[in-house]
Amino acid sequence: MNNLCITGSQQVGKSYLINQLIYHLNLSCHGFQTSSPIQFDRECYGYQLHSLCPVFDNDQIIMKITGEQRELFPAVFDDLGVRALESVTANIVVFDELGRIEKDSYLFQQLVKDFFERDVIVLSVLKKEEIDWIAPLKHRADTIYIDLDDTPYDRAFTTIRLWLEALLPSQ
């Protein structure tokens, strides 16, 4: 198994877990991360897509939230998202987070699915809801699936750390 899918409720620590593993194991990764909420002004905040590969015009807005209104920018996945994935040269790839914003970004989706088939280590965070395009990823035979709502953080960290150490060459 060389693929990992982590899910759980909002703010349960999915991205934090990935970041802690990267830090503690000193991992060199490519892929992308979704930013923590960014405050644009008093009433508006949002999220950005950040490529872990050096690409031009990084950190693009994928969602703005003003009150109850959400404005989505799925085209960012077809542009920055695709460029980030096409630039991957590392043997560890991070997808943080996969969800519904990119539901119509078919080229991006296909590139993500292709990485699950490659001989690389995939560390992915999945939105915890039924989303057609990502449902098959968590049910693959070569994928470890961890729900942080059901698995204590410390146990998840230790399990994933041991799994990664077994997959990685000795340093």
UniProtKB/TrEMBL annotation:
GO molecular function, one term: ribonucleoside triphosphate phosphatase activity
InterPro entries documented for this protein: Nuc-triphosphatase_THEP1 (IPR004948), P-loop_NTPase (IPR027417)
Stretch forming the signal peptide: none
Name of the protein in question: NTPase
Organism of origin: Entomospira entomophila
Domain of life: Bacteria
